[in-house]
Amino acid sequence: MPEEQTLITAKEPEKKPMAEPEKKPAAKQPKERVRADRTDELYKNIPEGDTLMKIDHLRVVYKTDESETVAVDDFTLDVKKGELISIVGPSGCGKTTILRCIAGLLQPTSGKITIGDKECAGPGSDRGMVFQDFALFPWRTVRQNVEFGMEIAGVPKEERTERAMRYIRAVGLEKFADSRIHELSGGMKQRVGIARALVMHPAVILMDEPFGALDAQTRNIMQEQLTKIIQHSARTIIFVTHSVDEALFLSDRVVVLTKRPSTIYKVIDVPWKRPRDRASPEFTALRKQILNYLEVQNVMEG
Amino acid sequence: MKFRYDKHNKYHRFGRTCVITAISLVVLLWVWWILSIVVQKGLDFNNSPLASPQDTFAALADLIKNGDPMEHRSLSSWVWSSLFKFLKGFVLALAVALPFGLLMGSFKTAKEFLSPWIEILRPIAPIAWAPIFVIMFQATNGSVMVVFVGIFFPLLTNIIFGVEKIDKTLVDAAKTLGASNGQIFLKVLVPSTIPYLMNGIKIGLGIGWMCIVAAELYNTTLSGIGYYVKFMIDNSSYDYAFAGIILIAVLGLLTTGVAEYLSKRISKRMGMDV
């Protein structure tokens, strides 16, 4: 697969090597202002491995006329810069709820989320998101989808296109840049979703079961591709999945949640080097351990 | 060599459709012809109000060549005045339905407030307004207003439906990409409503065409294909009247056909099915 190679180029540019007949590029950026499409620069002083995001006593209560359901309770987590942290839990627990709170799409009942020392209120381009059902704009081409965030941020057209194309190439879709979404397969769609999030350089990328809608084979390929992306450009990713296997394959740390109300049961460090071998004894042992726990949780509920 | 129909061959399927349609039309003409004889002989008309097909087509040919037999106005001037009013009514309906539809689809309070108006006005047949509108706005603009009423409601309900049917995850995606409410409106809501709008246009054009012809029956001025039919009937030129009716059918078919085609094209281009 050619895209596996090209993925490696997902790193930031070595300032366009091709000679481009100058069109006063320097004049375009008068001062070092951080733009909505480059929020990761806000936190460039935080060294990798230090805490970038703090989720503090998150609590979400769903109220209906008759009942109150506590979906998430006392969820506290520090996310380190440059890590991929997975959240797994029994089915029906508040994994996605937590992620939506972090994204600002859902207002938590109480609790605080901060990036650096900036509190997050409402959604913003500093928290990019990849959705399970892709959430691509069907009336836009692949390239226009990837450009969407930059369009919003007011990035000039030329830069927009150039950057979008770089990421489209990185996910191996250059042949499909001008295709429409319905012409793509599921795996290709999600690669567009990933490119669309990555291209904005958010401080944190949130992935909500991004490979959940894909078949098993495509899923494995996508996992490997994601591994390559994070190996070559450090990104902070919070990854929600119901697949323990996926979590162990991808993450630096795995957060295991309890059944509703979700709270943290355990945070497991996954120290193994990438790419990982799913068949290795320590991988299977750890997977079994987590699965056992999840099973107990599910059975408890009945 | 024996011909076998193969339903998996698209040329065969198309050919089949053509043959059946052609036979259907021939049978229709034949039924018309029989009926015209039955009416004339049975009801003992000298000049039967149900003109026969051959008389109708002779009249149509004459109409196309020499204009109408009374005023000698060309066919195109009759037709154009109808089409022009039709177009005016359509543009007006679009201009009003679009903001109201977007508003009512986006804001619950607006919808709750305006819904009673819509529910009361919508069931009224647009043509019921014609006599009043003709007095209120004069003949020409009165017809325009009838078309407006006819097209407005299907447009409005389809736009509201489209706005309400918006894929919420697309809005979420736009939010996480930093879009403001205004940007979401322009870049997500409006484009995702377009296929529904097209559907409304498709339905609206069909109704609007019926409205224009019917409204013109109330005309007092010599304009429009609907008035032409009435004018001919008043002068007992039934064959010329039927020629006009055939034109109305053909033009109606063309408008809805074009709208249907555009609607399909646009929905496909937008990657959506309504």
Secondary structure tally, helices of chain B:
9
Please estimate the helix content of chain A.
25-40%
Which assembly state applies to the chains in this document?
A: heterodimer
Most extensive interface, residues per chain?
A-B, 30 and 22 residues
Strand order of the largest sheet of chain A: 6-7-8-3-9-10
Can you summarize the main beta sheet of chain B?
Answer: none
Overall pLDDT metric of chain B: 88
β-strand number of chain A:
10
User: Which architecture name of the largest domain in chain B does CATH use?
Assistant: Orthogonal Bundle
Low-confidence spans of chain A: pLDDT under 50, at least 5 residues?
Answer: 1-32
CATH class of the largest domain in chain B: Mainly Alpha
Q: Tags for this entry?
A:
heterodimer; A: 302 residues; alpha/beta; Rossmann fold; four-stranded antiparallel sheet; 32% helix; globular; disordered N terminus; B: 274 residues; mainly alpha; MetI-like fold; 9 helices
Please give a structural write-up.
The complex is a heterodimer of chains A (302) and B (274). Chain A is α/β, with parallel strands linked by helices. Chain A has helices at residues 2-6, 95-103, 142-153, 157-170, 186-198, 216-232, 244-250, 281-301, and strands at 51-63, 68-80, 84-88, 110-115, 118-119, 127-130, 204-208, 237-240, 253-257, 264-269. In chain A, the strands form two sheets. Chain A has a six-stranded mixed sheet with strand order 6-7-8-3-9-10, with helices on both faces. In chain A, helix 3 (142-153) packs across helix 4 (157-170), helix 3 packs parallel to helix 5 and helix 7 packs antiparallel against helix 8. The radius of gyration of chain A is 20 Å and the shape is globular. Chain A starts with a helix and ends with a helix. Chain B has two domains: 1-49; 51-269, MetI-like fold, CATH 1.10.3720. Chain B has helices at residues 10-42, 53-66, 75-106, 108-121, 130-164, 168-176, 181-216, 225-234, 238-269. In chain B, helix 2 (53-66) crosses helix 9 (238-269) and helix 3 packs antiparallel against helix 7. Chain B is flat. The mean pLDDT of chain B is 88. The chains are: A alpha/beta (302), B mainly alpha (274). At the A-B interface, strand 6 and helix 3 of A face helix 6 and helix 7 of B.
